[in-house]
């Protein structure tokens, strides 16, 4: 079947599976494997040559993948228009493998100031220790990033929208600068999923997903995926393998299963998030809502230009209140329990502290902020839960 001409929702159903090759079984089987048997020295040497050449077509050892791994990699690669993908043990693993694939001692990394916290920790505590120079840039910098590029700049790392604060980065403007100077670009695309934004078509070299989140959709696995263009695949694959970033077979199978419903889930997440975000804008306790799909969001023009949809993750800044009031709101939420991660079927809330994670663009908001994930529950029920939370906040004065 030629899936290239199919709509994304149809591709989600058919990519990464071949019933004819598996006795007519609809879903690819789960291969639990560490060891692959070779029938001859010649065959064993052929697999070694395959790996050394960077082809990575043949299966040699479980750490480097099984047919189940390949099915998920092929499916997400097709969805994003990449060359090949690398599955890792978690989203952070995909990011770390991709960064270290292109950075050595003496190199310079430009990384967005509003990135996912654990990545900042990896850069500041590990990359720096091994001689990589790390600089943070304003997420709104656009083409002016050219002024920050040095002769030893090897990688520019992007997010759009940004973690916790949801600014929209002008991805094409930054990748244009990077390509002109031979700099590799890596982007975390987890928020948008493979359906709402395709980084490689906007000049990015490696697109990262925490498959733990929307690709899985059920909050029950840990997995990462790096979708690469042709030039970046071998470095990322070799680094991930050498670093031991391999995904577990059952998690990979569950991610494949979650992928089948990604289209209808993302649409519902966006619909619910939009309804809640608009409701929050009318609340007297709210200073502003951070969701680029809203027409009055500062990043809406870039989102509308480059993205085809939005997910269910967004933020809000409340008007100044005490810590006691803020806790009174969040402590007793019924449908928005506090928990890290997002992208599952359930709604979540978590307080955020952007000021502690910024250096290039200071966070100046006076009130507390929170991140909300709109799950698949009824929007009216979710709004009532938030309404009760605001009532507790007001009563705690």
Residue share in β-strands = 5-15%
The outline comes out as: globular
The overall average pLDDT, rounded, is 95
Through-space gap between termini: 63 Å
Helix/strand structural class: alpha/beta
Contiguous low-pLDDT stretches (5 residues minimum) are: none
Description of the structure:
There is one protein chain. The chain has helices at residues 8-14, 41-53, 67-80, 91-102, 117-127, 171-180, 193-196, 230-243, 249-259, 262-281, 300-306, 323-331, 379-395; strands at residues 84-88, 108-112, 133-137, 153-159, 184-188, 206-210, 224-228, 286-290, 313-318, 348-352, 369-373. It contains 13 helices and 11 strands. Helix 6 (171-180) links the parallel strand 4 (153-159) and strand 5 (184-188). The strands form 2 sheets. The protein has a 7-stranded mixed β-sheet, sandwiched between helices. It has a 4-stranded antiparallel β-sheet with strand order 8-9-11-10, with helices on one face. It folds into 2 domains: 3-31 and 66-259, 3-Layer(aba) Sandwich (Aspartate Aminotransferase, domain 2), CATH 3.40.640; 262-395, Aspartate Aminotransferase, domain 1, CATH 3.90.1150.10. The protein starts with 7 loop residues before the first helix and ends with a helix. Helix 12 (323-331) runs antiparallel to helix 13. The mean pLDDT is 95. The protein is of the alpha/beta class and 397 residues long. The protein is globular, with a radius of gyration of 22 Å.
């Amino acid at each position: 079947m030629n899936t290239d001409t199919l709509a994304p929702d149809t591709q989600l159903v058919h990519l990464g599976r071949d019933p004819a090759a598996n006795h007519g079984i609809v879903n690819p089987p789960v291969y639990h494997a560490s060891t692959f048997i070779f029938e001859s020295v010649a065959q064993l040497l052929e697999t070694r040559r395959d790996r050394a050449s960077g082809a990575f077509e043949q299966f040699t050892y479980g750490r480097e993948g099984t047919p189940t791994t390949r099915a998920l990699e092929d499916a997400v690669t097709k969805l994003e228009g990449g060359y090949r993908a690398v599955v890792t043990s978690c989203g952070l693993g995909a990011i770390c493998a991709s960064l270290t694939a292109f950075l050595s001692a003496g190199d310079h990394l430009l990384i967005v100031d509003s990135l996912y916290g654990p990545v900042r920790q990896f850069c500041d505590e590990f990359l720096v220790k091994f001689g990589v120079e790390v600089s943070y840039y304003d997420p709104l910098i656009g083409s002016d990033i050219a002024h920050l590029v040095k002769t030893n700049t090897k990688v520019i790392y992007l997010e759009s929208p940004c973690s916790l604060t949801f600014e929209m980065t002008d991805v094409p403007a930054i990748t244009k600068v990077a390509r002109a100077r031979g700099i590799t670009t890596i982007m975390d695309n987890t928020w948008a999923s493979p359906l709402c934004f395709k980084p490689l078509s906007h000049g990015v070299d490696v697109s990262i997903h925490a498959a733990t989140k929307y690709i899985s959709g059920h909050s029950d696995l840990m997995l990462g995926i790096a979708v690469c263009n042709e030039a970046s695949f071998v470095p990322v694959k070799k680094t991930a393998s050498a670093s031991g970033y391999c995904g577990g077979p059952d998690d990979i199978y569950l991610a494949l299963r979650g992928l089948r419903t990604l289209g209808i889930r993302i649409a519902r997440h966006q619909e619910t998030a939009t309804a809640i975000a608009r409701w929050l804008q009318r609340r007297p306790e709210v200073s502003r809502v951070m969701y680029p799909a809203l027409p009055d969001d500062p990043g809406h023009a870039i989102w509308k230009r480059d993205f085809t949809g939005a997910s269910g993750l967004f933020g809000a800044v409340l008007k100044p209140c005490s810590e006691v009031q803020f806790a009174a709101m969040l402590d007793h939420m019924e449908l928005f329990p506090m928990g890290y991660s997002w992208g599952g079927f359930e709604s979540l809330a978590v307080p955020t502290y952007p000021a502690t994670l910024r250096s290039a663009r200071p966070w100046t908001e006076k009130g507390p902020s929170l991140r909300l994930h709109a799950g698949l529950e009824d929007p009216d029920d979710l709004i009532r839960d938030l309404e009760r939370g605001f009532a507790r906040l007001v009563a705690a004065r």
